[in-house]
Design a protein that fits this description.
The structure is a single chain. By secondary structure, the chain is of the alpha+beta class. The protein contains four helices and five strands. The chain has a single domain (23-151), classed as Endonuclease, Chain A. It has helices at residues 13-21, 28-39, 91-114, 128-139; strands at residues 45-51, 56-63, 68-73, 118-123, 150-151. The longest helix is centred in the C-terminal third of the chain and has 24 residues, at 91-114. The protein is globular and about 45 Å long.
């Protein structure tokens, strides 16, 4: 899948340890948003698998009956316009990889929309109450995102 890219060697054991510690699910921002949603009386599924015609994806927070998919995106991995910084080490590897992540997000959004789902993408740095308000807005059928959040 990396095509012509040469997999980079880590610049040190501390980098290897840090990258291995990254989690795919149950991140701290995701857990905080789930906790707040639960406190507001919302019931949902976490790490919910959805297969569409064009993509298979694990939705961070899903409301299957309402067909609402909520993703909590990390600033580095999804190239946040406010906080993303181009990596200085192994740049020839990271730039295309992160560009593919953003392209995959777009594909997932379109695939879920084609399957009848609404998609909300929140940045990891979003204030929890603003994120909850954004999800509640989407649950009510309105599409007015709060500043710093992505509603797609």
């Amino acid at each position: 899948m990396l095509g012509d890219l040469v997999y980079p060697y880590p610049s040190g054991p501390h980098i290897t340890a840090m990258m291995r510690a990254n989690k795919r699910a149950d991140t701290k921002p995701e857990a905080a948003i789930r906790s707040a949603l639960h406190a507001h009386g919302h019931r949902f599924r976490k790490d919910y698998f959805v297969k569409t015609d064009h993509a298979s994806v694990h939705v961070d927070i899903a409301f299957p009956r309402r067909r609402l998919a909520v993703f909590v995106d990390g600033c580095f991995w999804h190239c946040c316009p406010d906080h993303y910084q181009v990596p200085t080490a192994n740049r020839q590897y990271w730039e295309p990889k992160l560009a593919r992540n953003v392209a995959r997000d777009t594909l997932v959004n379109r695939s879920l929309a084609a399957a009848g789902w609404n998609v909300v993408r929140l940045w990891e740095h979003s204030p929890v109450e603003a994120a909850v308000a954004n999800v509640e807005t989407a649950l009510s059928g309105r599409s007015v995102p709060a500043k710093g959040l992505r509603l797609e």
